[in-house]
Amino acid sequence: ACMFTMMNNARLAVGMQGVAVAETATQKAIAYANERRQGKASAYAGSGMAPIVHHPDVQRNLLTMRALTQIARSISYSCAHALDRARVGEGEAGAKWHDRASLLTPLAKAFSTDVGVEVASLGVQVHGGMGFIEETGAAALYRDARIAPIYEGTNGIQAIDLVSRKLPLGGGEHVHGYISELKTVADAVRTSNIEGFGRTADNLDRALADLDEATRFLQKLLADGKADAAMAGATPYLRLISLAAGGAYLAQGGLADRSRIALCRFFAENLLGETRALKERVIDGAESLVAAGKALISA
Ligand SMILES: Cc1cc2nc3c(=O)[nH]c(=O)nc-3n(C[C@H](O)[C@H](O)[C@H](O)COP(=O)(O)OP(=O)(O)OC[C@H]3O[C@@H](n4cnc5c(N)ncnc54)[C@H](O)[C@@H]3O)c2cc1C
Fold first, then answer.
1. Measuring from atom 28 of ligand 1, which residue has the nearest CA?
2. Average pLDDT over residues 19-31
3. Rounded distance between C-alpha atoms, residue 148 and residue 15, angstroms
4. Pick from 116, 128, 120: which is nearest to 53 by CA?
5. Which of 153, 180, 212 is the last residue of a domain?
């Protein structure tokens, strides 16, 4: 029991390492993109070559970095919040928050550290050739980020933990309670009449429907004793639940603070659609994975 307490704290701390590297890489890339001049940009009113931050493709990279970083941070904070509530809660409420912390711990560790790598890699890209040169620090961040998906339980093991131990919590109902809570955020966006959210509510509904379907599919596989097929979908499932939850957290941010709406909408209309492909990998991918995997085995 003591070992698991230590491990869970360590997982959250390593998740925060992913967030920290991602935040540093994002700040560094935005600063560089405002200095570096290349090409012409119609939106640039100045003379000569435009700072690369004016190019939409560079903006796409920077906004992706910012959105993924904020999502990883919000998932990690939600996990920390649940841990605190579990510590002070009693009875049913305490048990609910304990389950919530258990559900979110593999997300906080694995999604945040994957984001650390993804965002640090985008940071190298924004720096162009300079990203590959040590003096910018962009490559060093990428290298620093790369260890975090490995230690404190590899991210593959976190995904297996999520599917095999966390989806069954509360007789399989805890995760559905969580998904229902996330759905209330989509409803709140729809009824808020606040401008600027674009298609956020509809796209969030769709992502949460993908999550619901994939969750029920995996729970049925586990109930039917088909653990291997469920494990084949564990890693795409972890990213699916993280992106869907992250979309809801960004929307909550937008509801509380209008300066956050533009990023929320960017995420909902540019990145959240990935949940559809992830759901298909979870539901349709296992058979071909196991079939093709046989060719790898020589031991
Ligand atoms: C820089 C550094 C610092 C470290 N610090 C510490 C420390 O302070 N304390 C400590 O205790 N450890 C530490 N470690 C060890 C670290 O926790 C392990 O490297 C990590 O848990 C992975 O174990 P492994 O290296 O044996 O890889 P393996 O377990 O051999 O994993 C190799 C691959 O196989 C996959 N895999 C393994 N088993 C399964 C399975 N059952 N199902 C599906 N996939 C599987 C993994 O996901 C991974 O992709 C550190 C490692 C590094 C690199």
1. 154
2. 98
3. 8
4. 128
5. 153
Distance 64 CA to ligand 1 centre (A): 29
Q: Which of 112, 132, 153 is the last residue of a domain?
A: 153
- Confidence label for 182 from pLDDT (cuts 50, 70 and 90): very high
| Residue 84, pLDDT score | 94
Ligand 1 probe mutation, 150, 158, 235, most atoms within 8 A of CB: 150
Mean per-residue pLDDT of the chain: 96
Q: How far is CA 149 from CA 25, 104, 267, in A?
A: 17, 16, 23
Whether residue 191 sits in one domain with residue 142: no
Q: Cα(185)–Cα(190) distance, rounded to whole angstroms?
A: 9
Which ligand 1 atom is the nearest neighbour of the CA of 152? 17
Beta carbons of 279 and 240 less than 8 angstroms apart: yes
Ligand 1 mean position, distance from CA 195 (Å): 47
Taking the C-alpha atoms of residue 170 and residue 101, their distance in angstroms, rounded to an integer, is 13
- Going by alpha carbons, the residue nearest to atom 47 of ligand 1 is 156
Which residues sit with their C-beta closer than 6 Å to ligand 1? 147, 150-151, 153-154, 156-157, 160
135 belongs to the catalytic site: no
The count of structural domains within the chain is 2
Q: What is the pLDDT of residue 118?
A: 98
Lowest mean pLDDT among 40-54, 68-82, 197-211: 40-54
Q: Which domain holds residue 222?
A: 157-288
Buried b or exposed e, range 91-117, using 16+ CB within 10 angstroms: eeeeebbbbbbbbbbbbbbbbbbbbbb
